[in-house]
Write a structure and sequence with these properties.
It is a single chain. This protein has 268 residues and is an alpha/beta fold. The strands form two sheets. The chain has a seven-stranded parallel sheet with strand order 3-2-1-4-5-6-9, with helices on both faces. It binds NADP nicotinamide-adenine-dinucleotide phosphate. NADP nicotinamide-adenine-dinucleotide phosphate (NAP) binds next to helix 1 and strand 7.
Amino acid sequence: MPVPAPHPDARAVVTGASQNIGEALATELAARGHHLIVTARREEVLTALAARLTERYGVTVEVRAVDLADPAARGAFCDELAGRHVSILCANAGTATFGAVAKLDAQGEKDQVQLNVLGVHDLVLAVLPGMVERRAGGILISGSAAGNSPIPNNATYAATKAFVNTFSESLRGEVKPLGINVTVLAPGPVRTELPDPDEQSLVEKLIPDFLWIDTEYTAKVSLDGLERNKMRVVPGVTSKAMSVASGYAPRSIVTPIVGAVYKKLGGE
Ligand SMILES: NC(=O)c1ccc[n+]([C@@H]2O[C@H](COP(=O)([O-])OP(=O)(O)OC[C@H]3O[C@@H](n4cnc5c(N)ncnc54)[C@H](OP(=O)(O)O)[C@@H]3O)[C@@H](O)[C@H]2O)c1
């Protein structure tokens, strides 16, 4: 069953819409005629995006500046969504830390779980009853290839993505007969463009150019995948190869190698 067509009363919700994959998802949804609610913490960036999308595609774009790692702010946003006609949810916001958990800021790690896990789970639970009642809806969850296997020095992130990958693929089986599509996006490295060499993060410096996938392409294939109710979208040949390798290679051999690479990403 296709995801619901655009409707003046319906909204497609995109979290983490202020940059990269989330911005590309919001743009692609607007191009397909969907009215939007876009959210992230930086209100001014979202307001500028909303103005651009409304001007270019004639859609209504509502801005919600919400810190999804904050349980109270997230709860208030979920309460609003529960009462709205949400046709599509792109639960995309997520952050990653690199380095040994014992050395990382404990509050930062907890915030990452709040955002990457509960920022997905709570929002899905908020919109699901309405979708079930209408027997229509689309839920796209930004997971990651990082959720496929253990990653020392990226432990919290890998574990949060294992949660959302599994949650998405499990939920899909439950709601398919109810007319609701659920797809997990599980990419390898994705970015909008190569930043100036002086402004590149360590991750961007260490991952070779050919491994990166474009955000626009990622958004298109993700929304096409959701339309067809694909279980998992893995954009690009390199990501697919990485996914297959992590699925079949013995964990005891691969984990220390991967851990050593991520140790470098953590700056050691
Ligand atoms: N890019 C990749 O290579 C890649 C690969 C695999 C999986 N993914 C997953 O895909 C998703 C998007 O990745 P991305 O690279 O586009 O992310 P990104 O560039 O780091 O952007 C993260 C987005 O989340 C928002 N955000 C961060 N903390 C937040 C908070 N506490 N509350 C609300 N919003 C918050 C940010 O906006 P504000 O700063 O304005 O709040 C931003 O819009 C993530 O879930 C990520 O794990 C990405």
